[in-house]
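Input/output pair, single chain:
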Amino acid sequence: MKRLFAILIIAPLFISCNNNDDDNVQNVSTTFNFSHNWDGTEVNSTDFNTIQYTNANGEELSIEKLRYLISDITFTKEGGETIVIDGYNLVDLTNNENLSYTPNIEIPTGNYTNVSFTFGFDAEDNTDGTYTDLNSATWNVPNTPMLGSVGGYHYMQLEGKFIDNSSAEVGYAYHVIRAADGSTTPPTVQETYIDVDLGSVTISDHITFNIEMNIAEWFKNPNQWDLNVLNNMLMPNFNAQIMMNQNGQNVFSLGDIIQ
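Output:
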């Protein structure tokens, strides 16, 4: 992962006694809570394993697993300076784990023009075999020719069952990874992580951001997802990964801010 370094700024020693701005700045903690819905209807683990949702294509489906990774939470200050919280959080709704994430780095109070995070890993961080805890969670992508021999890690695992065109109950595995086409020489690779912007905020105290994921959006816009066609073997499907990236642009939104 990228590393943070303290920067020593040399400033003139002629400081006005009337300037107390620095005295008002303090470092505070930030917390990110993750909630989930289906077009406004709350989804939690007690709703799993029951076919009760209908996607934009009209297919009825259930959710049996939902895990996804967020990383590199970034605070952008006025003037363009950024504070990047180097770390990641594997949100696991299936087991109700890591639904709340408080990084161990505090940030200064003040005005920020944007707060953002990365869905998945960016190219620098998505390094094969690097994170032992994610390896133990079976979160790594197999380093095989079919998947472009680039390895790395999942961004999301969304699984369940749906009713297909023959009225049969069929499993689906909507797994999001870096897009790689192993059939070309050399393999074609395209980054598919998503930068999620939450907008501006003034931080005056310890702060909690409530982040909402609308799961229905993964199947909706701009690509109306046909589970009868795209339900499994999506990891080696380069075009499917690009479509997932496009559909994921509007999945997350900012709910309440508490401080």
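Confidence is low (pLDDT under 50) at residues 1-20. Residues 28-256 form one domain.
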